[in-house]
Structures are given as structure tokens and as C-alpha cells.
Specification:
The chain is α+β, with helices and mostly antiparallel strands. Helix content is 29%, strand content 18%. The chain has helices at 7-21, 38-51, 90-107, 122-128, 146-153, 155-158, 208-221, 306-316, 430-446, 450-478; strands at residues 179-186, 198-203, 235-239, 266-271, 284-290, 293-299, 328-332, 353-358, 366-369, 388-391, 395-405, 408-416, 421-428. Strands 2-1-4-3 form a four-stranded mixed β-sheet, covered by helices on one side. A four-stranded mixed β-sheet has the order 6-5-8-7, with helices on one face. Strands 11-12-13 form a three-stranded antiparallel β-sheet. The protein is elongated, with a radius of gyration of 53 Å. The relative contact order is 0.05. Keywords: Cell membrane, Cytoplasm, Endoplasmic reticulum, Endosome, Golgi apparatus, Lysosome, Membrane, Mitochondrion, Mitochondrion outer membrane, Nucleus. It is found in: Cell membrane; Cytoplasm, Perinuclear region; Early endosome membrane; Endoplasmic reticulum membrane. Its main location: membrane.
Length: 479
């Protein structure tokens, strides 16, 4: 109230109040600098400067007409980091401190120490804190927990030496994480048990080595026999057929490769070492030579019969010894054209190399055509031909089409199919073609067939019409 007679202070207060409360900036222009008497302001500032050593109302940087009064201008508004944040008052801070002290007092409990008034004997004191033996406490006869029952049912799971590979089991992650389902045939089991595969679900990011460990872990958890060697490197994975036959023509899968690299859904676990530290186990393989390559047939012992070896060889070569299909036999490599007795054992043959020969059997019932593809020729862009079976009653004719050279000849088979006559052409060397044509015609002549008679009758009618047409044409040209 002492400075209300000073117009400069009142003017600065009014301007500052308007500027800070008005967002448009128009109030700042209401009061300007020439409203203040600069001389009076300067004289008052000079008189105040003698009593005050720190401050001055006049800006000393300028002189003359450029001198203005600081109090006539509003205070510059500057922003800081605490702009918009209201500082807490001392009362709020004190209340917060009291609240924390109250919470700490709740956690603590003060106990007043009192001297013992009556003396107690040692027996009384020992009875207050009696020592109890919990080992002799009788066990409760309540119901067992589910975890206890599961542990009792699977005691071997606790002692499974392959527990470190259980993390690759993907049965609980199907649908949430990439997994792969594989049927694994176990070659170390008995003859009956090895026919049924063990289904394993593994994580897609597992390696072949991890998959072998997972198979061993699941094998041990299921309590299968015989027990496995604790060394995972003792086993390897081979490609297997759908019936469990191990394809030994290909090497085992690389243990360091990821399992998702291979697209096989059927594999076989094979023991490659007899025991840790020893060399590879000596496996028995029988070599079967065929027309287009050879196959290695693994056998368990020399007591196996030749009939079993023949069946395994036909499975590998996708052949069959049943029904009306082509028949095969085994011959020794050193004794061609001498069939091997299928009831004899491998030990009695004295050799491990045989030939798979297709038997040339002539039957009057039907003619079977089994296409043979050349492995050297790429079949990527060609459709594989299927075997054809033609009944002898539907077979009409077998004719030699052309014979260019002794190494190349063509013959034709004509047969009835859906009330229409179709022809099949075959190429081979001249000697084989002539032999086939001779034998097929011998079979056709020995059998009376209605379709063959109709075919020749239709062929004769076509020949007569052609002859009659050519005769009329020659007659007209002669006239």
C-alpha cells in the first residue's frame, strides 16, 4: 500500500495482470510507454538508486530518448521444466510423512519387558517348550494326491537317462508351435513288435540327433523291451518303407541336420554300434541284381529262407508274386538259368549275391503288359505307363508292323475295348519281336474267339469295299 502513489508501479502491475490473463494479446497494447512520465520515473529511480545498491528501475544500457522505465513493462514470462506442475504444500508433505510413520508403526509391535515374578523349576520350563519327534508320527491314512499316483505309476520316468531330450516332445504344442509327426519303426525289438511303429511328435526346430534322443526317451517311458543303450550316438535314423522295411540303399540321416529339412514321415531307428567304444556292427546284406540296377537286402542271420529274401526284393522293386502278375525267381550269380530253392536257407547257398529273373510263362487266359522304364532316361516330363492286362477272348490280332534292322522292329497288338478296336505298338529288337508275334499268334489260333472273328469279318468288309471302289474307278477311267 506504500507504493500506490507511484504511478509506474501501479501501471506495471495493471499491464502484467492483463498480459498474464489475456490469451489474445490485445490488453498489452492498451497501456503503452508514453503514458508514463519518463522524467518523473527517472528522478524517482535516481533517488531510489542511492538507497539501493543492487537494483535500478532504469535500464542503463541506453541513454537519451531510448531510456525507458522497467516498471512500465510487464515481466517476461519464461517456461521451465516444472511448468504446469504444482508443487506440493508443506501441509501435504507433512501429512504424507505422518501416514508413512503410521504404516511403519503397524508393522512393528512394542512388547513391554516384565521381570519374572515367580520362580519356575526346570521341569516346568521344559514342559512349556517340549521337544517332539516327528519321525515317529503315524502317517495319515487319507487319499493320495494325483501327483503321487502318477509318480508311482511311472517309476522309470524318474530314472530315464534320456530326460534331457524330453523338451523336444511336441505333443503338448500341437496347434501352437510348429511340430512334426513321424512314425518310427524300432529294429531292435522282436519280430512281432517291430511291425508296429511308434508315433513321435517332435518340435520342428529339433535336429536329427535330438529326435533320436526323443525316440529313446519315449521308448524308455513306455517300458519297451529290450532296454536301450544310454549313449544316443549308438543309434541312427534310416529311411523306411510304410511296412517298416529299412531302405539301406540310402545312408542314414545326418545327425546335425534339422529334422524339418527332410520330408519323410516314416523312419527307422537302427543300432549302428554294438556297444560304446566298439566299431560298427557287422550287418548281413544280400545283393540282388536285377535288369535295371541292384538292391541290398538286410538279413538278421544266415538262417533266413530264400523265400523271405525274394519277398523283400520284390517289395523294394514294387513287384508282386501273387495273383496273375508276373512271376519271378532267384538265381545264383555264378550259376545262371538255375533257379534257387525258395525253401532252402541262405546259409546253404554259399553266396550272398543273386539275380532276380522274371519267368517267361505263357498262359492262354490273358496277355499282361508290364512297362519297363529306363532309369537313364528322365521321366520328369513323362507320365508313367501303367501295366495292362488283356483277356485272350478280347485279343484280336498280333501283327509285325515293320522291321528296319536287326536291332529295331515294331509289332502291333489289336484288342477289343468298349465295342471299339484299339491297337498297342511295341518296339524291340527283331529277334524278340518275331518270337513274341509267333507265340501270340499261336495262342490266338488255338482258341476260338468271337471278337477275333468279328474283327477279321469287319476287316474283310473294308477290304472288299476298297477293292470294289478301286475297280469302279478303273472301269470309269477305261471308258
Amino acid at each position: 500500500m506504500a507504493f500506490l502513489d507511484n504511478p509506474a508501479i501501479i501501471l506495471a502491475h495493471i499491464r502484467q495482470s492483463h498480459v498474464t490473463s489475456d490469451d489474445t494479446g490485445m490488453c498489452e497494447m492498451v497501456l503503452i510507454d508514453h503514458d508514463v512520465d519518463l522524467e518523473k520515473c527517472h528522478s524517482s529511480a535516481a533517488s531510489a538508486g542511492g538507497s539501493s545498491s543492487g537494483g535500478s528501475f532504469v535500464d542503463g544500457s541506453g541513454g537519451g530518448d531510448g531510456q525507458t522505465c522497467d516498471l512500465s513493462q510487464s515481466v517476461d514470462i519464461t517456461s521451465s521444466w516444472d511448468f504446469g506442475i504444482r508443487r506440493r504444500s508443506n501441509t501435504a508433505q507433512r501429512l504424507e510423512r505422518l501416514r508413512k510413520e503410521r504404516q511403519n508403526q503397524i508393522k512393528c509391535k512394542n512388547i513391554q519387558w516384565k521381570e519374572r515374578s515367580s520362580s519356575q523349576s526346570a521341569d516346568d520350563l521344559s514342559s512349556l517348550f517340549e521337544k517332539k519327534d516327528f519321525k515317529d508320527r503315524p502317517r495319515s491314512t487319507g487319499s493320495k494326491s494325483t501327483l503321487s499316483l502318477r509318480l508311482e505309476q511311472c517309476p522309470q520316468q524318474l530314472n530315464n537317462p534320456f530326460n534331457e531330450y524330453s523338451k523336444f516332445d511336441g505333443k503338448g504344442h500341437v496347434g501352437t508351435t510348429a511340430t512334426k509327426k513321424i512314425d518310427v519303426y524300432l529294429s531292435m525289438q522282436s519280430t512281432q513288435e517291430k511291425l508296429h511303429p511308434m508315433t513321435v511328435v517332435t518340435m520342428a526346430n529339433a535336429r536329427v540327433h535330438d529326435l533320436i534322443g526323443l525316440i529313446c526317451w519315449q521308448y524308455t517311458c513306455e517300458g519297451r523291451e529290450p532296454k536301450l543303450t544310454e549313449n544316443v550316438n549308438t543309434y541312427c535314423l534310416h529311411i523306411a518303407e510304410d511296412d517298416g522295411e529299412v531302405d539301406t540303399d540310402f545312408p542314414p540321416l545326418d545327425s546335425n541336420e534339422p529334422i524339418h529339412k527332410f520330408g519323410f514321415s516314416t523312419l527307422a531307428l537302427v543300432e549302428k554300434y554294438s556297444s560304446p567304444g566298439l566299431g560298427p556292427k557287422q550287418s548281413l546284406f544280400v545283393r540282388i541284381n536285377a535288369a535295371h540296377g541292384f538292391s541290398l537286402i538286410p538279413v538278421d542271420s544266415l538262417k533266413v529262407t530264400m523265400k523271405e529274401i525274394l519277398q523283400k526284393a520284390l517289395k523294394k522293386r514294387k513287384g508282386s508274386q501273387k495273383g496273375s502278375g508276373p512271376m519271378y525267381r532267384l538265381e545264383k550269380q555264378t550259376e545262371p538259368n538255375l533257379p534257387v530253392d525258395l525253401d532252402s536257407t541262405l546259409e546253404s547257398q554259399g553266396t550272398m549275391e543273386f539275380c532276380l529273373v522274371r519267368e517267361n510263362r505263357i498262359s492262354g487266359e490273358k496277355v499282361e503288359i508290364d512297362p519297363v522304364t529306363n532309369q537313364k532316361t528322365s521321366t520328369k516330363f513323362w507320365i508313367r505307363q501303367k501295366p495292362i492286362s488283356i483277356d485272350s477272348d478280347l485279343l484280336c490280332a498280333c501283327d509285325l508292323v515293320e522291321e528296319k534292322s536287326p536291332s529295331h522292329a515294331i509289332f502291333k497288338l489289336t484288342y477289343l475295348s468298349n465295342h471299339d478296336y484299339k491297337a498297342l505298338y511295341f518296339e524291340c529288337d527283331a529277334a524278340t519281336v518275331n518270337e513274341i508275334v509267333l507265340k501270340v499268334n499261336y495262342i490266338l489260333e488255338s482258341r476260338a474267339s468271337t471278337s477275333r472273328a468279328d474283327y477279321f469279318a469287319q476287316k474283310q468288309r473294308k477290304l472288299n469295299r476298297r477293292t470294289s471302289f478301286s475297280f469302279q474307278k478303273d472301269k470309269k477311267s477305261g471308258q
